[in-house]
Every structure is written in C-alpha cells, then in structure tokens.
Design brief:
The protein is mostly beta strands and 144 residues long. The chain has one domain: Metal Binding Protein, Guanine Nucleotide Exchange Factor, Chain A. The protein has one helix and eleven strands, in the order βββαββββββββ. It has a five-stranded mixed sheet with strand order 9-10-4-3-11. A three-stranded antiparallel sheet has the order 1-2-5, with no helix packed on it. A three-stranded antiparallel sheet has the order 6-7-8, with no helix packed on it. A hairpin with a 4-residue loop joins β9 and β10. The two termini are 31 Å apart. Keywords: Lyase, Metal-binding, Zinc.
C-alpha cells in the first residue's frame, strides 16, 4: 500500500501531494454533500494537514464555507473540480477521492447520513453496468 498520493483538478491547473495514510474514508449521503457534488454522495478521505502540500495552482483554489456549519468545499476556479479542503474545526484535510490521480487502497470506512440518501439509490443492485458511456440511438455520439 503506497503512502504517497498525488491529485489534480480536471483542467490540471491545481495539483497536490499527500504523504501518509488516510485516517478515514466516508461516503456521505447528506443533502449538503449531494448539492455540493451534484451527485448521490461525496466520497471523502480524511488526513492530517501536515501531510498535504500544493504542488501547483493553489491560487486557483476557491473555498466555500456554509455559514454556521462545519461544511465546506474547495474547487478549482477554472474548471470547478473538487479539490482538498482544510477544515479548521476538524483539524483535518478533506480530500475528495475523485480528485486523486493515484490509486486508493483504502476501502470506505462507512456510509454516513444514509437517512438523507436519495430514495432511488436503494434500487441500484439490478441495473445494467457498462465499462463506458452508451449513447442513445438518436444521440450524436459525442465524446464523454
């Protein structure tokens, strides 16, 4: 298991490095994470901030903190991709798993706030799965 991780945003303008193991890995189904990711849940890894450093583009990072909560998220101001956030109240760096360029060996520790999960996520076990995008018969067949 590697303890060196690199990550970046979609446009490559923001790059970072993290050394050490991740303390926790949560799939969070709260409504704040749903809205912040535009998806069914956030997949966040937690680490001590002294293990983290920006390699490029720190000036492109914008952080939104929801007032009167611990909820915050950082993103690249160029492409909007989620990037790590330091959460002062927790004393931890929160690293969105999807922004990592290196493999994560850690399995999520838990699904949290499942009471807020979208109802349709409970019916996904029997739907078809594909290795790539399948355009509809009437689509133009554009790139992903």
């Amino acid at each position: 298991m590697s303890n060196q991780h690199q990550g970046s945003c979609l446009c490559g303008g923001v790059q970072f490095e993290l050394t050490g193991e991740f303390d926790k890995f949560f799939l969070c189904h709260c409504q704040r994470c749903q809205k912040g990711t535009g998806s069914v849940h956030a997949a966040n890894l937690f680490s001590h901030p002294q293990q983290f450093k920006w390699l490029k583009g720190e000036e492109l990072v914008t952080t939104y903190r929801l007032p009167d909560t611990r909820h915050s998220r950082s993103f690249c101001s160029n492409c909007g991709s989620a990037v790590p956030t330091y959460v002062e109240k927790l004393g931890l760096a929160v690293v969105p798993a999807g922004c990592l360029d290196t493999e994560v060996d850690k399995v999520p520790d838990a699904r949290i706030y499942v009471g807020s999960a979208a109802s349709w996520t409970k019916r996904l076990d029997n739907i078809p799965s594909f290795d790539q995008f399948i355009p509809s018969p009437d689509s133009a067949g554009g790139k992903d």
